[in-house]
Task: structure prediction
Amino acid sequence: MIRLCTLLLLFTSSLIFAQDYTITGTVKEKESQQLLESATIYAESIKDSTLISYTISENNGGFQLDFKTSEPKVNVFFTYNGYKSVMKEFVLNKPKFEVGDILLQPQLQELDGVSVVGERIPITIKKDTLEFNADSFKTRPDATVEDVLKKLPGVEIDSEGKITVNGKEVNQVLVNGQVFFSNDPKVATKSLPKEIISKIQITDTKTKTQEFAGEEGNGETKTINLTIKEDKNKGMMGRLSAGYGTDDRYQLNGLLNYFNNKERVSILTGANNINNAGFSFDEIYDMVGNTSRGISFNSNGAFSVGGMSFGFGQGIVTTSNLGASYANAKKGKYELDANYFFTSSDSYNDQRTNRENFLPDGSFFTNSESNFEGTTKSHRGAANLEFDIDETLRISVQPAMSVNNTDSENISATESISDQDELINRNRSRTVSNGEQRNFSNQLNIFKKLDTIGRYIRFGFSNNNTENMNVSNFYTRREVFGDNPSDEELDQKTFTNATTDSYNLGFTYNHPLSKKTFVSLGYNFRNAMNKNEKSVFDYDEVSQVYDDFNTLLSSDFNFENKQHYPEAGFRRNGEKFRFGLSARYFFTELDNEDFLQSTTFNNKYENLLFTANANYSFDKRKRMSLWYYSDLNMPSVRQLQPVPDVSNPLNVVIGNPDLNPSTNHSLSLSFNNYNWQERTGMFFHASLRAETDKIVAVTTTDEDFIRTTEYRNIDGNYSIYGSARYSKQFKKDSTFTAKINIKPYFNYNKGVSFSNGQQLESNSYSITPRISTTLNFLEMLELEPGYEFGYTDTRYNLSAVDDINFVTQRATLKTTTYWPKNLIWGNDISYTYNSNVGPGFDKDALFWNMSLGMQMFKEKATLKVLAYDLLNQNNNTRRSTGTDYIQDFQGTVLQRYFMMSFTFKFDQFGGKKKKSSMMYLD
Result:
């Protein structure tokens, strides 16, 4: 309480002595008097060159710089890309200043009578690039790249670590223009310290073809490039961390980076049993287990970072990893980066599922419990090599290899109960599996420029070769009760050897009709061959070995997918308006032959697909985009093969060889605007997705609730999605900053399926408004409260099925105190509530993580004590709905533990510090 009062006193005192000031004017080019849009105007403290405030000129060249300070005078800089910067000193003897026209000259000319500066510009807006000076945005001394990104206008980072810029997702982060371990942005943003970063450049993501040909990206995704400071770009830096806690919880991780201009070597290692990826070095919030920050979970619960998988299930994962990355480049000659990762993980998870299944005349319930344990060891290596033979010819090669070894055991029990609460059937099973998966892939691209105005050819070849070998033991017992009771057992051993060999060949020719108008022609061929040998042996009670070959469940088939398509495109790249249209005509042939089951089929399809996009830039701040895209979903072997799959005795699956591919049609509209004067951002996105000939499961359920599932093409499935975002930054001076985000989401989904011959339709609506704020006082106290409300309403066409609606709520509060000096206290609190989960499932939980860190040895080390799930209420409960079901799920989660950790960071740099470019010509 004393600390908080002291902080409030300091904050109040600073506000009392600080005054509000406004500087207005117009920025012009000196010779032509052209109005300069997106010039940067910023105020600095004369005392220590601290950034006080900044703004950007409007499209009429006008600007208004608002700031609050207690200093008697400030330096104000006027900058524009390609022009010499002007500095003027303002004696703050009045609240408002009108400076009239500020005249800038091109960089090659000299200025007389004023000061010029070329450094410390907080933001520079170029044609397609936003460039931020990292040092202009104040953070705590131990901040990571992620911390400074959160300070940038228009940049948002959600709780999953996903980065967006003005509503557009960032899909890769580069370091000095090169990949850092992988394209996963989180690896660089969470592991690299802000102190070594000079510039943060944000551009539209480009394909390799667009990059080499000098074309613009489509603007739908963004790339962040981090440039290392000149004096930090030669030497090494690293961090080591170790922690141990209650319940034998532990974490070890380390990172070493060596920089030598364009050459970089990085080594990363870690081990823990708290569901942590192991590469983050947040001084206060790291090592607090899985709160989903920076970790993406797959549908089966395994989490992955940058293509690396850790574990199987959502439960507790113990991981060890070791990685190395190398990058080098020589301008005009080559660029290369390569990485290798080894991961080892052990997982266990207990989960429980209660599901209500809808039938045309009622419903029944399926209750399941399972226990899973698994081990995986993975090796993964990848490289990216680009060779510039000359200015017109580039060759790009991207090989990758991986080997995964897995062992797992899954024990499950399932029972089906009627709506009269009668037990109808029961199934218990145990599966023990051991497998190895090998993969090799490669991409080869050759680009050749034929002139300097956009005529080029591209040749591409890629392959993907996978081998999956698995041995599993499967035991199950199915009991059916009622009028026709039965009791059946299966005890089997299965040997599987599956290979997939896929090859793609493509050619593109781009021809300019004018400087801004282009047509393109291309041809692509793809061949994918799947070979599957599955041998199932039943257990023989007499010989007591698995030697009774089960022909019905075994298979030996070849499945080949041959596809080729010509394509043609047109695009127009104007200053404000860009438009593109392309068409592809697909010829597809599917061949299948099962030698064991004596089944064959040959299906041929022809499909015409279109893609179109239009982008209009109102100015450098506002853009509107319209997209249409269509693609094919080919039926899988399982969906096509007319052979019963009885591996699940309660659900027999039969394929349909007459299936057609489904076609996805997507239409989206987006608008984004960022007002630099007001620090206000707005983003809107709406999309419609419809799927024709969707492949759906058609289920028939008998009186014993034994299901038979087939597949059919059905129309009528579509979804509508809408989202918006409003953000506002407040900053008067260095004492107080605030950011507010309001993000409403809307989703509508119509699903169509069949059950017992009758069509089922569901109409599901969900609305999820979110609000979050970040408040920072004197860089000593940071508060991040947030609230999310979710409402879901699902309606069904069957009178026997009740409509469902439920509410979810989540309130969060994150606090960080950096006072007194060298002491960091953090709290991360979230409360979740689910209104309509079934009996026996937790409806709410208060999840609280707390940590206290002390910096020592001149901030080179941090000693930290943390408490994870302080109240021991963490849970993993959720409700979901589908066309013919409602399901409640609960799984194992990491619960309360306490840990003490120690982090040490070191560096040794030999580069020269960049000299200031300040010049006085008075």
Residues 109-118, 286-303, 305-310, 914-922 have pLDDT under 50 and may be disordered. The first helix runs from residue 2 to 17.
